[in-house]
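Write out the 3D structure for:
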Amino acid sequence: MTSDRLRGPVLSLFRMVTGFLFLLHGTASLFGVLGGNRGTGLAVELGTWPSWWAALIQLVCGALVLAGLATRVSAVVASGSMAYAYFVVHQPEGLLPLDNGGEPAAMYCWAFLLIAVLGPGTWALDTLLVRLRDGGTHGSARPAHDTA
């Protein structure tokens, strides 16, 4: 079936785009590039809680998810950080994401949870490492633990 054949590659593309966008947020906040932190053009101050730590998670987890390396763990950490951002930073400003500016945090939280549950897809370093470890004996590029 065509949809089954496309599942792994489409999941991989979803993971790569999500990781890349998250990586950009971290890069902007940590280094003051690409518009900087919240469009100010400035980097967040080193070590400030929670902004600097959130940006570090965005940079590291975004890069790992983009590459498909340690994907599930990185996606869980990213999802958790976005849940924290939503409930601690945004939710006190209003009940709904439209009222509190929390749409990106909520969407990233659920997107990373989806990646953590479904795995990296067929185009990922995790998948390649499983194939290399198994000596290429599997006919599929899919790791045994991945249902994508």
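Residues 2-31 form the longest helix (30 residues).
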